[in-house]
């Protein structure tokens, strides 16, 4: 699992270098990522406070997941100049992530 985390840190935008099993393991290793993944499927704009309220999780927990997904290129911030109330959208890599996970589950 540590090697997978290092791969994601160093090469998070190259999903093709990861096997489906590795990608699946990274996403499902932590439940906050699963929560964010479900929100990515349902909402066109992601906000930590909304997801936290919707899922009864802390804003900090959801913000951490948003940061992880942003660092790996799965989402992008629409208003990075703000320190609070940030809004995110799914990137092309994020859409590919959703597609690969859907295919893996089927």
Task: Describe it.
It is a single chain. The protein is mainly alpha-helical and 106 residues long. The protein has a domain at 32-105: Winged helix-like DNA-binding domain superfamily/Winged helix DNA-binding domain (Arc Repressor Mutant, subunit A). Helices cover 62% and strands 6% of the residues. It is built from 6 helices and 2 strands. The chain has a two-stranded antiparallel ribbon. Helix 3 crosses helix 5 (59-71) and helix 4 crosses helix 5. The two termini are 24 Å apart. InterPro entries: WH-like_DNA-bd_sf, WH_DNA-bd_sf.
What descriptive keywords fit this protein?
106 residues, 2 strands, mainly alpha, two-stranded antiparallel sheet, 62% helix, Arc Repressor Mutant, subunit A, disordered N terminus
Summed up:
The protein is mainly α.
Q: Into which percent range does the helicity of residues fall?
A: 55-70%
Oligomer: single chain
In the CATH hierarchy, the third-tier topology of the domain at 32-105 is known as Arc Repressor Mutant, subunit A
CATH homologous superfamily of the domain at 32-105 - what is it? Winged helix-like DNA-binding domain superfamily/Winged helix DNA-binding domain
Portion in strands: 5-15%
Structural topology:
Blueprint: H1 2-11, H2 20-28, H3 31-42, H4 48-55, H5 59-71, E1 75-77, E2 88-90, H6 92-105
Antiparallel strand pairs: 1-2
Organism: Methanolobus profundi
InterPro entries: WH-like_DNA-bd_sf, WH_DNA-bd_sf
Protein name: Winged helix DNA-binding domain-containing protein
């Amino acid at each position: 699992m540590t090697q997978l985390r290092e791969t994601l840190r160093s090469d998070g935008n190259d999903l093709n270098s990861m096997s489906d099993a590795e990608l699946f393991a990274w996403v499902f290793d932590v439940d906050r990522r699963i929560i964010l993944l479900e929100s990515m499927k349902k909402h066109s704009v992601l906000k930590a406070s909304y997801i936290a309220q919707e899922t009864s999780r802390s804003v900090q927990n959801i913000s951490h997941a948003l940061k992880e997904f942003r660092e790996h290129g799965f989402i992008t911030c629409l208003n990075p100049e703000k320190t609070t109330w940030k809004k995110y959208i799914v990137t092309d890599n994020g859409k590919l992530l959703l597609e690969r996970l859907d295919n893996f589950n089927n």
